Amino acid sequence: MLCWALLLLSVGASLAVCPRDPGSRAAPRTPGDGGFKISISGDPARYVSQSVYVVSIQGPQPFRRFTLVVDSSPSDGSEASPQRVGSYQLFGDDPSTTFNPDCFNTVSETRDNPKSEVQVMWTAPATASGCVVLRAMVFVDEYHWYADDGQLSRTICELTEQTQEPTAPEECCACDQAKYKFIFEGLWSNVTHPKDFPFSLWLTHFSDVIGGSHSRNFTVWREGDIASNALRQLAEWGSVGAMEQELRLKSKGLKTLIKAAGLWYPNVNSNTSSSFRVDRSKHLLSLVSM
């Protein structure tokens, strides 16, 4: 009976909600959000399952500590699994964030030093997961810390066929052409993406980036369709030669054929870039890399 009691206590402790107060030395929680907020890249009204978003905590003044969690909404009082609420990933080149060793699916600071913003990646949960809520605690000093109130709590629900509103494509009304520059930045390491990360670091790379600015009826690939042989070669081997030939054969729908050098070890987490032009009829962009 004693063993069963200890087992139940252990399970109960693992399911308890992670405490997010800064400790007994701090004053009581300051009401409101203090101007701090949780932001999600693109400011989506709803999330797309399995998509990756950049989640950040920002505010009007520096803060020293923080805790960022994600929970199911409505919450049943226990910590939810990544399958239900998604999972956080850290940026490999950001030394200010770490996973909280005492809490599940929780990110905290590595050092108690002033910071103006922190960012992590959040992979949205699987289809049919419903709504989740992102909550944050921000610690400014022993007398000012905020948690959960206002914009430090953000609920976001899944985008489904039932919730997606049909939108008619907007016609571009630009009077002239414009020139843009895109930057492809590698964010791949055994810290940000530990699953199946190559044992041999020299194998890590991103292939050359290829694509183009194009008209609305031009496609490089379409969901549900069979990939072209050129796209298959790029996806399987990282070879862009056949894809370049395919794009040149369809050049009537292109404004700019875009190519940028790949990122190879030891520079996988650097960046590569290229410029392209758009005009009124060819203002969409498609890029591919392996």
Question: Mind telling me which CATH architecture of the largest domain this is?
Answer: Sandwich
CATH class of the largest domain: Mainly Beta
- The helix/strand class is mainly beta
Count of alpha and pi helical runs: 4
The rough form would be described as globular
Instruction: Give helix and strand order, one letter per element, not per position.
Output: HEEEEHEEEEEEEEEEHHEEEE
**Average pLDDT, all residues:** 85
- Terminal CA distance reads 56 Å
Q: How many beta-strand elements?
A: 18
Description:
The protein is mainly beta and 290 residues long. It has 2 domains: 37-158, Immunoglobulin-like; 178-288, Sandwich (Immunoglobulin-like). The chain is built from 4 helices and 18 strands. The chain has helices at 2-15, 82-85, 229-237, 241-249; strands at 37-40, 46-47, 52-63, 65-73, 87-89, 97-99, 106-109, 115-123, 131-141, 144-147, 153-158, 178-185, 205-206, 209-214, 254-260, 263-264, 271-278, 284-288. Strands 2, 4, 6, 7, 9, 10 and 11 form a 7-stranded mixed beta sheet that branches. Strands 1-3-8-5 form a 4-stranded antiparallel beta sheet. Strand 9 and strand 10 form a beta hairpin. Helix 3 runs antiparallel to helix 4. The protein is globular and about 70 Å long. Residues 1-16 have low confidence and may be disordered.
Secondary-structure map:
Layout: H1 2-15, E1 37-40, E2 46-47, E3 52-63, E4 65-73, H2 82-85, E5 87-89, E6 97-99, E7 106-109, E8 115-123, E9 131-141, E10 144-147, E11 153-158, E12 178-185, E13 205-206, E14 209-214, H3 229-237, H4 241-249, E15 254-260, E16 263-264, E17 271-278, E18 284-288
Parallel strand pairs: 2-11
Antiparallel strand pairs: 1-3, 3-8, 4-7, 4-9, 5-8, 6-7, 9-10, 9-11, 12-17, 13-16, 14-15, 14-18
